[in-house]
Amino acid sequence: MSNILFTEEQKMVQELTRKIAREKIAPVAAEYDEKEEFPWPIVKILAESDIFGVYIAEKYGGMGGGVFEMAIATEELSWGCGGISLAFAATGLGTFPIILFGNDEQKKKYLTRIAKGTVAAFCITEAEAGSDAGSIKTTAVKDGDHYILNGTKQWITNGGEADIYTVIAMTDKKKGARGATAFIVEKGTKGLDFGKKEKKLGIRGSATREVIFTDCRVPKENVISKEGMGFIVAMKTFDYSRPGVAAQALGIAQRALDESVKYAHERKQFGKSISSFQGIQFMLADMAIQVEAARAIVYRSAQIVDAGEKNIAKLSATAKTFASDVAMKVTIDAVQIFGGYGYMREYPVEKLMRDAKITQIYEGTNQIQRGVIAASLIKELKQK
Amino acid sequence: MSEKRIKILKDVCTGCTLCVKVCPFGAIAMKDKKALIDYDKCNLCGACVETCKFNAIELKTIQRSYDHSSYKDVWVFCEQKKGVIQSVAYELLGEGKKLASKLGCKVCGVLLGENVKEKVPELFARGADIVYLVDSPHLKYYQNEPYTKVFIELINEYKPAVLLSGATTIGRSLTARVAINVNTGLTADCTGLDIDEKEKLLLQTRPAFGGNIMATIITPNHRPQMSTVRHKVMQEAAIDESLKGKLVEKTYKDNILSSRTKLIDIVEEIEETINLAEADIIVSGGRGLGGPENFNIIRELALTLGGAVGASRSAVDAGWIPYSHQVGQTGKTVCPKIYIACGISGQIQHLIGMQSSKIIIAINKDPDAPIFKVATYGIIGDLFEFVPALTKKFKQVLSK
Amino acid sequence: MNVIVCIKQVPNTTQVRINPETNTLIREGVESVINPFDMYAIEEGIRLKEKLGGKVTVLTMGPPQAEEALKEAISLGCDEAVLLTDRNFAGSDTWATSYVLSQAVKKIGDYHIILCGKQASDGDTAQVGPGISTHLNIPQVTYVKKIEEINDKKARVERMTEEGFEIIETPVPCLFTVVKEINEPRLPSLKGKMRAKKAEIRKMTAEDLNCDFDKIGLDGSPTRVVKIFTPPARKGGEILKGDIQEIVERLAKELKGEI
Known about the structure:
The complex is a heterotrimer. Chain A is α+β, with helices and mostly antiparallel strands. Chain A has three domains: 8-118, Butyryl-Coa Dehydrogenase, subunit A, domain 1 (Orthogonal Bundle); 121-228, Butyryl-CoA Dehydrogenase, subunit A, domain 2 (Beta Barrel); 231-383, Butyryl-CoA Dehydrogenase, subunit A, domain 3. In chain A, 52% of the residues lie in helices and 15% in strands. Chain A contains ten helices and ten strands. In chain A, helix 3 (67-80) packs across helix 6, helix 6 runs antiparallel to helix 7 and helix 6 runs parallel beside helix 8 (313-338). Chain B folds into three domains: 2-59, Alpha-Beta Plaits; 74-257, Rossmann fold (3-Layer(aba) Sandwich); 276-399, Rossmann fold (3-Layer(aba) Sandwich), CATH 3.40.50.1220. Chain B contains twelve helices and 22 strands. Chain B has helices at residues 2-5, 18-22, 47-51, 87-103, 120-125, 144-158, 169-181, 254-257, 295-305, 313-317, 348-354, 383-399, and strands at 6-8, 28-31, 34-37, 57-59, 74-77, 80-81, 84-85, 107-113, 130-135, 162-166, 186-190, 192-196, 201-208, 213-218, 225-229, 246-250, 262-268, 281-285, 308-311, 338-342, 359-364, 377-380. In chain B, the strands form six sheets. In chain B, strands 11-15-10-5-8-9-16 form a seven-stranded parallel sheet, with helices on both faces. In chain B, strands 19-18-20-21-22 form a five-stranded parallel sheet. By secondary structure, chain C is α/β, with parallel strands linked by helices. In chain C, strand 9 (140-150) and strand 10 (154-160) form a beta hairpin. In chain C, helix 2 packs across helix 5 and helix 3 (94-108) crosses helix 4. The longest helix of chain C has 17 residues, at 36-52. The chains are: A alpha+beta, B alpha/beta, C alpha/beta. Chains in contact: A-B, A-C, B-C. Chains A and B meet through loops of A and loops of B.
């Protein structure tokens, strides 16, 4: 992909993450998919290559990039494996609350560690609080200089593997969404445990696990922003992280396109390469058009977020929805182009299709995203 | 300066672009329909001069005259390990004999070791006219410095015109040091040797740039003309017990036999019982095996055939088998009589390491796998069916 | 521990394709990379520095474009880089190349270990490493697969052989050529890449190195290429058809004389 509009630093991020994806991730992707293990050796490589610090400020040991740099890295890593890339991307999700709302001390303490490769996770989802984040049941009760957390978070990406957890819990149930507060909880804190490991359709090289709080005492210094800000922290975090999910989808889609073109060129039927058949050519062209359009919207949304635009909910929802829908469509087409081989585990495309699906679901389903977009449209109309 | 040594004769150049294609360094481009040399990239190899049909490229070399008349005979380094002469030495004696007869000189073996005098008749039987023997406890095992210094002494005293060695780990380490010390040229890893009978020069042919280009190299002004030669390329000299030769025994003082490096221990690894480079038959497995446990069927076929086990880079990178088994550009270059590639697609890096094998058999599910482009016999099918079937068949055949 | 690593820039063979008609390499669009074997030498040099302190200087002889290879070495963690570039070097064979590199080593001075890859992937000679140590009259160990112990006086290493390995002790300074088994090279880091971008690459010519002009380039090279030709392409043979039993019988028949 042309990177002519990139800065030198962005080119470096792309070049290096691409190299890691191709040389280190892609060769082991099928193995991690099969074993459903957390990719620690890859995390080590990413850490040593400074990738974890891409979106962290220089004064905390990072490279000083933003959402765009993170999206570039996520896209490339997801080309290698949409599951493995989450060790990086979901760390970003767990880190944004600190970047956006953390105080200087929290930033110094945690961002420096994350920049060096400490894995983080974001805990909001519960059994009865998915898209409806307002109905969270996990509680945090103040007790002197501490808060006592109780409750169970579900489907936490990097759960059990991460060292740093940012958690949304209710400090005042009566206030509903306004009664939520964000905390930083470190692994090893008494009362923080991990439950069931999920068996998933795709992104199986990532850990998805229950995170359980039982009378877990968290010092009050670990409150992010202040009491009652939890919901805003979460929503703002998602605004920043959605271009990342979109970039993950984009990487998966690009891989599906690349594999399809290669295969269509190599595969011979009726004495010629199937890429010479118009039926296949049109499919490939449509895939390319969609991938390129997705890239445009992902890059643009990330750049606008970085430029400091405040109202980004609609744009980042648009990017996430479009890119994830493209990923799903394009990976299905890739399986079709591969024919019977595409259905087999021995070839890489059925995995892409399985990995793509989650991007339409998590960090807000695409239906919720469309709701957000529509609500923004109406709001904009009223403001006119 | 390279720009003074080679030039395009603009008036003669027709702009045919042949030289652009042939330049191994990508140093020629077309400008205004004429060839143009990038002197920063040009390595003066002369490939373009050879190719140009219009004599439009001129390469000047300085001709010096040297008197080489005191240098004669073809020498072969007869590498021994644990007192056993390595088969590559017999191959080189066979080849050396042919070269010597074209040069009208003798072929001589050079044997270094401890208590190896009893091996001298074997070298005579393989056609050596003279054997230079240096027997000393210091030479029992190969060590760079004593071996190098002994060779320098021998060369300075007896002045061979040609010195050949196997392209083994020992041969390559030794000859590189000797050549610098006696100030002569060395051509590594040759696959063809001949004599320019008019100039009485050794023509050394070797693969270059990954085996896709062959280069013939001479050492016009320096002696001896030194080459290391690949295993299994030359025919072994036949044994003729009736042949006799002359033995020249030399002893040297401690300063020649001393070594700054010290050999502490030799560790043999069981997996390495059959040396890939020396094997006549190699059975190799690749990614198609699916996992380390499946190398067993490869081992069984190799064992049945008395061959060695090879592997593709992807199998090694996946950790299925140690690196010492890797065939290909970053592994070993082999040329056995039979190479059986199982579940190996045939990436260029692999092909480079095995395409000079005499017979190549490829078993692969994918009919478009590049390995079939070099295979003598291709089997499109499941290796898990064919490999055991072959093992069974050869067990039958060989038991008869 | 001051380490000098000698590297070479080569065409990336994983990208090399063959023109099926002329059977020649298609060079177009093939990028240049650090010789894969030299990556192990660079990694080992950096590891020695990380363990024992000191610095790693990386050295190459080549055209001005070889600066890219040196920058990559810096992005991996090498401290300094020197490019030996001069049109007078053109046409150097292994004798002349190792002479030039040894002159550069003398110029740099103050080193304990010189590391080289076991051979270059384009030339495959494995001669330049031993050539450098011979010109410098220092001990060498080729095909090193492990450095067991090392200090500024001596080293103990494992040298790979056809049958296994040897354990060798050598005084320092000395030169090692290393094989793939010795380590797993790291990837560059972003900070390393930034450093490399800003890094100044020292350039040296034949004159800077006090080279004897009779020992370099085409004239200083004892060997001479007289012919370069393309070997006939190995033709694909026969695809065996039939059921498994027929194919196995056929192969047994064809191979009878060879086993």
